[in-house]
Amino acid sequence: MKGLIMKKIKNFVMYFIKLLTVSESDFASSFLAYYLLLSFIPLLAFLSQVLIYVTPNFESFIYNLMKSLPNDVNKIFMPIVKSIFNGQSSSLSLIAIGSSIWLGSRGFLGLVRSLNKIFDVNTKGKIPYYEVIFSIFYTIGFMIVIGSLLLFSVYNEKILSLVKNFTNNIIIIDKISAYLIDGIGNLMPMIISTILFVFFYRYAPSFEKGKRISFKLSLIGSIIATIGIALITFFYKFTNDTLQRSPSYYGSLGSILVALVWLLGICQIIIYGAVFIKTYKDVIIDKKNIKYLEDKSK
């Protein structure tokens, strides 16, 4: 019995690795990370324009936050932040958000086409520009996930302190605020990312009518991807906190490199979730083995 279980696990792992290799998914994740990185600056410009009008004292908050960064990182981003705040206009906001969405959607377009290859999807007969339209919507959703991960995970302690200072004036809320805030800070990013990944894995590939993967399979892949992203984010937070205590001449550069690795890791895990779904369907449900995949790839 034990030997049979180990054989099934081995077949699952080997099938997963082989599918990951033949799908050439590394190119898609790198492509996505590259375009998301390009879209960061216009996105920052748009958010700053909006939050200045919505949030009081937002500009001073950003400047104080910039002062907490290592000196070398501060010197890189401070001129960009100042130019954004000094050039407020509605036309700039529209151009910024348009550029950010366009650049991000280019990356997701490559990702969607990679998913089509992983799931063996026939793209003929789909509505024109289906992949392009979906990639734009998912770019917006991905920005929400990244923002929530950063806000609730990386800057969790700062957010908690601000909320606690506010709830101290309300006696009833103050008694339950610690439990409520901790729960929101830990669970909200995972809930948001799981919901978006369920939607993504189920609807992003250009499935033919009636051949879409089940909700159960998309949920399994979404949970795997969410757990992976949570681990990557924890690694980023831990490493970044460690580098902040390091000498500035390499701590600053290290922080930037870790952030890039974190972004690439998230893009790679999105692919892993899709490959896991396909492996689960083929091996567990359809009872296929590694030989089937090897014969198919010849």
Plain-language structure description:
With 298 residues, the protein is mainly α. The chain has one domain. The chain is built from 11 helices and no strands. The longest helix is centred in the C-terminal third of the chain and has 38 residues.
Distance between the termini: 34 Å
**Most strands sheet:** none
Count of runs of 4 or more consecutive helical residues: 11
What is the alpha-carbon Rg in Å? 22 Å
Strand content: under 5%
Summarize the structure.
Keywords: Cell membrane, Membrane, Transmembrane, Transmembrane helix. The protein is mostly helical and 298 residues long.
Itemize the secondary structure elements and their pairings.
Layout (H helix, E strand, L loop, with lengths): L1 H21 L2 H30 L3 H10 L3 H16 L3 H29 L11 H25 L1 H12 L3 H33 L11 H30 L3 H38 L4 H8 L1
Helix pairs in contact: 1-10, 1-11, 2-5, 2-10, 3-4, 5-6, 5-10, 6-8, 6-9, 7-8, 8-9, 9-10
